[in-house]
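In this supplementary section we document a worked example of the pipeline. Step one takes a protein sequence of length 77 as its only input; no multiple sequence alignment statistics are reported here. Step two produces a three-dimensional model, which step three serialises into structure tokens for compact storage. The input and output of this example are shown verbatim.
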Amino acid sequence: MDTAFILLKTEPGRERDVYSSLTDISEVVETHALYGEYDLLALVECDSSRELTSLLMQKMRQIDGVKETETLIAVDY
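The serialised model returned by step three reads:
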């Protein structure tokens, strides 16, 4: 199982819309609003890196109001 933290920047005033859209995606385990450089944080879990790529490219980055994402992939020690 691949775990990643996705930081999102949204268009001004679209934070709630994007937040709501993220909660409809089954791979999104948690969603949080943030203060600072990024507007939202999503914790996602996928079965493979290929599924993670698909999630990012075909779902998350296609949400209306998303300007930018940064993906932090969690690793095991």
